Amino acid sequence: MIFHDAADTFTTLITAALLWAGALGAAAGFVLAVVFLALGPLVAPTAKTTARHLSRPSWASGPFRARILARTHTMRPSARPAWAHTQPLDYQEAA
Question: Distances in Å between the alpha carbon of 34 and those of 4, 19, 21, 46, 84?
């Protein structure tokens, strides 16, 4: 009888320890989720700003320089890609 009570107490203690570990893990997960949700809006604008600055040359800041950059990156008729049609399309003839 004493061994049965000791084994029952040991099993109860182990079960209680596992339940406490699960509860503490769930609480820690909740706290981390709240922290990450709170930090997301603080980190996202800086990440967008960094990506915006990395995607353009360092000299392209301001409306004048942005206009120059846009003008140099537009496609010229002579600089067509290989997959573009070489013949102009005549829509009147097709109709």
Answer: 45, 23, 20, 20, 51
